[in-house]
Design a protein that fits this description.
The protein is an alpha+beta fold and about 290 residues long. About 25% of the residues lie in helices and about 40% in strands. The protein is globular and about 60 Å long.
Amino acid sequence: MKKRIIGFFFIFVLKSFAQTSKTTIGLMPFTSTVSKNKILTAEIQDIVLESLNTKNNITTIDRSKDDFLNKELDLQINERSIASKKLVEQGKKMGADQLIVGTVISFESVRKKGSSGVIGGLIDDKSGYYYESTIVFSLQIIDVETGKIVSQKTFKQTNEDKSILGNDDSKDESKNKAIASSKAAIVVWLNEIYAPKIKILKVEERTKSGKPKTILVTGIDNSLAVGKKLILEETELIEIEKGKEPLKRTKKVATLTITEKQGDITVCKVTDGENTIEDKITTKNTLTIKEN
C-alpha cells in the first residue's frame, strides 16, 4: 500500500510539472550589419532555435525563415533598436509572449603563425599557420505586451584551431569552434532568464552519517547535460504591505552535479548543502537551478 501511495505521488508530481505554464517565444529573422555575413547569420539563428528547443519551459514559434519579415528587418536595420512596433504587432498575431531578435555584428578570421617547441625531447616544428576566429552578435528578448526589452546581451566568441597547421582547413575549423562555443554561451544565457523550476522527489542515497548523497529531481531539461554542476536556489515571496507586490528573496540551498538522466527524472549528487536540502522536498517556495 505504501509503495502505491509513493508511486501515485511521483506520477502526480510529474504530471503537475508537465502542466506548468510555458513562455511562448517567437524567433524572428536575424539580421547582419554586413551582407557577406548572411550565411553565418543563418547559422547563429539555427543554434538559437536548437537552444530554445532544449528548454521544457518554452514553446517556440519559428518565424526566422519568413521572407516578408526578413525584408521588413532589412529595411529597419539602420533605424531600429530592434524593439519596433511592427515586430511587436507580428508577435501578437502569432500568439507569442516574447520575441527573440538577433544581429550578427562582425566576424573575423585572423591567420597566425604556428610555434616551434620541444615535446618529449624531440623538436616539434609547427612552423605552419593557423586561424583564430571571432564572432560578435547580439540577442534581444522583447515583451510583446509592453514592447519593452526584457533582456539583451552581446556575445563575443573567439576560438582558434591548431590541429591542422599549414593549410586553410584550420580556418573552417576555428569558425566551427567559435559557433559551437556560441551555442554553449546562448544556453547559459537562456537558463539565466528562463531558469528551470524543479521539484525534489526524494533522497535516493545517503552517506554513512545519514546525510543526502544523491537526490531524484524533476524539471531539469535537455539544456543541462550529465556532468553539469548546478546551484540550487530557493525563492521566497515576502509580503511587506497588503495590496503591494511582495518582495522576492532568492537564496542558495545547495550545489549539485548531474550524474544520470532517467527519462523525466534526473539523478543529482549533492556536493554542498546536505544539511538543508532534505527540508526542500516539502517546500512551497519556488526552487530553481543555474549553472555553477
